[in-house]
Amino acid sequence: MEKYKTKYTVKLICKALKFPRSIYYKALVSVPSKRQLEADKFKAEIKKIWTDSKARYGAPKIHMVLISQGKSISLKRVQRYMIDMGLRSIVIKKFRYHSERITTEQKKNILSRDFNTAGINQKWCTDITYIHTVREGWTYLASVMDLHSKKIIGYAYDTSMTAELAMPAVKNACLNVKVTEGIILHSDLGTQYTSRIF
Question: What are phi and psi of 194, to 5 degrees?
Answer without folding.
Answer: -105, 5
